[in-house]
Amino acid sequence: MADTYTIEKVKKMAGIIFKNISKIYDNGLVAVRDLNLEIEDREFLVLVGPSGCGKSTVLRMIAGLETVTSGEIFINNRQVNDLPPKNRDISMVFQSYALYPHMTVYNNMAFGLKMRGVPKEEIVRTVNRAAGILKIEDLMKRKPRQLSGGQRQRVALGRAIVRNPQVFLFDEPLSNLDAKLRVQMRTELKKLHSRLKTTVVYVTHDQVEAMTMGSHIVVLKKGVLQQSGSPLELYNHPANKFVAGFIGSPGMNFFPCRIIEDGKEYYSDVGDFKIPVNHSLIEKIKDRKVQEYTMGIRPEGFRVATKQDSDRTMAYKKCGRIEAHVNVVEVLGKELALDLSSGRYNFTVVIDADASVRYYENQKLSLEVDIDKIHLFDGKGEEAAIA
Ligand code: ADP
Ligand code: MG
Q1: Residue 221 CB: number of other CB atoms within 10 A?
Q2: What is the edge-to-edge ordering of all strands in the sheet holding 90-93?
Q3: Which of 58, 69, 106, 233 has a CB 3.0–4.6 Å from the CB of 24, allowing a cystine?
Q4: CA 144 to chain centre
């Protein structure tokens, strides 16, 4: 049995399936509603959503720390609804690292193995191996209070790794780190995953973290799954207005609009400006009774038009054009974020910082919109995406 604990030695299979899972707490609060989800073996899945949307509840149900109210959870094709946490072969890393303060780093990592009666030599080998992977060999004799936040985080990871679990659960593990370290640890966690090849469910409220880390992202809102897909699917084809606004930074701009016909062309009419829409889009909405929609344009979906562009645009009607007033210019680095207004609308545009062109507050700008990049949402209820 001892070799079960050797890192990278035993390859375990562990897909996770949620089948109609709901969780209602004793106070009647519905934390998760009818969740259906398949997490593939060895996948790095990121569960993202605002605070209170049920992310930790989902993790705790996988770990067995929380019962399910209805539905079924399968790990590696085995229904685990009633399986106690200690038999699920899962390691969880929390935001508050939960290290034992009176134990050295070595003992923090070794403790779980000792409790399981793993032979001493095996423990030494496993802990040292994990310390090597995490580059904390020099810290083994220290106590947690003698470590920086990033080092504590590594120890918490080490403690999880030495167990060689079939599934890793991470609950906002980087939230307590400063921005730079957080970016560094993201990369390290991804490297760790490609090395250990274990199924990971990673929870964060930070969409940037989700986009950069996940190959599969699940967006949750008020306990309801909104969309499940790759980062680019979520970015390019958000299922609804919530996902559209949540994924991407700065967020998508929204404009209430009506679709109108003018001659042979169709336009999305915002009142203060109108933008031509593709005929393919018109096909999708032609049988709808509603006239009210929300148009979404990402900050990076605009371009500053030159005089020549504008003439060409007008001639071919391929692009939408908006006359805008510059309120604020913000330098992001190689890009600029412009806070603009057009009529009663305020919106954000991100453009490449071109050293030869300067933008000023209170300046007037002509913008072009690539009409293939326009999103349209149903104006009612969940505001599902039409395109
Ligand atoms: P997240 O991790 O996304 O912030 P949680 O899963 O912690 O969200 O919580 C989801 C909802 O369930 C929240 O409204 C929270 O207040 C509630 N909740 C969490 N734990 C309990 C509990 N033990 N009893 C009652 N309500 C809870
Ligand atoms: Mg949480």
Answers
A1: 18
A2: 90-93, 167-171, 199-204, 44-48, 216-221, 224-229
A3: 69
A4: 30
Decide whether any atom of ligand 1 lies within 6 Å of the 221 Cβ: no
Q: Is the CB of 53 under 6 A from ligand 1?
A: yes
67 lines ligand 1 (CB under 6 A): no
Atom of ligand 1 nearest to the CA of 205: 3
**What is the torsional sign of CA 6, 7, 10, 14?**
positive
Please list the rounded mean pLDDT of every run of 10 residues in the chain (387 residues).
46 86 97 97 96 97 97 96 94 87 96 93 94 91 92 90 91 86 86 89 95 94 97 95 94 92 86 87 81 91 77 57 93 93 94 84 91 83 66
Q: Which atom of ligand 1 lies at the shortest distance from residue 66's CA? A: 23
Nearest CA to ligand 1 atom 13: 52
Q: What are phi and psi of 169, to 5 degrees?
A: -115, 130
